[in-house]
Write a structure and sequence with these properties.
This protein is α+β, with helices and mostly antiparallel strands. The protein is 38% helix and 17% strand. Helix 6 crosses helix 7 and helix 7 packs across helix 8. It is globular, with a radius of gyration of 22 Å.
């Protein structure tokens, strides 16, 4: 499993909140449920994503939009026409998911301007775990990615599954949405306008890549720069220089930060003691782990655990190895 796979492991649909809205102009849908990630897929027509305090982004059929929360945003047919309740005939609060409706299927490419409704499919993900947050924090408030893989048939199949009442419908929807979300994120980071984190580019590097994969494959191992250099087939100096150039920090500093990210999610599991979490991320005793955790996260493991317990519990997975 590479770094991208591991970070996305916590971003999965499991009864994800989703909805299919048929929107007739003038319309404006507010998303106010505080989701950490929202995937918007126009199945017909198109509209404008208006993030709070941000510039409108046009999204149409054949494109996918991702909005990073938890700030609210609006999907509207006309950002210049206002997005408040004064707009007649179309303002709806999506809340926990867009409302459903039915309408005759318009011709391909039809939208509000031709008198046909826009059909929007939206799915929200409440991603609070620390591991996927490392990926989500690298995203802009909103992004739009064109479909360059000819996913039209998959989109049609996805829309056809909604409300069919067949056994396993929710699982099918979850997995299809997972697939679309991962493809959209991967395509975004490959676009020239994206600003991917340093580790993303380092994955394909012949020097830094093997070291990154080794650390993520076994984060509890007592890795040293010298041992990682052997994995990369270069000298310790060469690895340290190249890794720092690409990732922004040395291998050992990166490993420590990654261990603390894993530990933060493990600390939300009440069955694990602090000492058990320390061992899971490569520390022989709780004292050394607590010192490192407080230095990087600004609070002790116990204080972090108490704060996490005060919020909704998050299901996390143990680190690989």
């Amino acid at each position: 499993m590479d770094v991208f796979d591991e970070l996305l492991r916590g971003v999965r649909g499991s009864g994800a909140v989703f909805g299919r809205s048929v929107l007739r102009a003038p319309w404006s849908v507010r998303f106010t449920d505080g989701a950490y990630l929202t995937l918007c897929l126009p199945m017909r027509g198109g509209g404008w994503i208006v993030p709070e305090g941000g510039e409108p982004l046009r999204v149409e059929v054949g494109e996918a939009a991702i909005v990073r929360g938890p700030a609210p945003f609006v999907f509207t047919d006309d950002p210049a026409g206002g997005t408040g309740p004064e707009r007649a005939g179309g303002v709806r609060d999506a809340g926990g998911g867009a409302a459903s409706d039915t309408a005759p299927a318009p011709e391909a490419g039809a939208g509000p301007e031709s008198g046909f409704p826009t059909v929007l499919l939206a799915a929200t993900y409440d991603v609070r775990a620390q591991v996927p947050q490392r990926l989500l924090q690298a995203l802009p408030p909103a992004l739009v990615v064109p479909d360059e893989q000819d996913c039209g048939p998959m989109r049609d199949y996805l829309e056809g599954q909604i409300g069919g009442g067949r056994p396993g419908e929710q699982i099918v929807l979850d997995r299809l949405l997972d697939w679309l979300l991962v493809c959209t994120l991967r395509d975004w980071f490959d676009r020239p306008e994206a600003d991917p984190p340093g580790w993303y580019g380092a994955l394909g590097d012949q020097v830094a890549g093997p070291a990154l994969r080794a650390m993520h494959a076994d984060p509890a191992h007592p890795w040293t720069t010298a041992e990682l250099a052997v994995r990369a087939g270069v000298s310790r100096t060469t690895l340290a220089k190249r890794f720092t150039e690409l990732v922004g920090e040395g291998p050992v500093a990166y490993l420590t930060a990654w261990r603390m990210t894993l530990a933060a999610d493990l600390l939300t599991r009440p069955e694990l003691t602090v000492a058990a979490v320390a061992r899971r991320v490569g520390y022989a005793d709780a004292f050394g782990f607590s010192t490192a955790f407080k230095r990087l996260r600004g609070e002790s493991p116990s204080a972090f655990r108490r704060a996490a317990a005060a919020t909704d519990p998050v299901e996390t997975a143990a680190p690989a190895g």
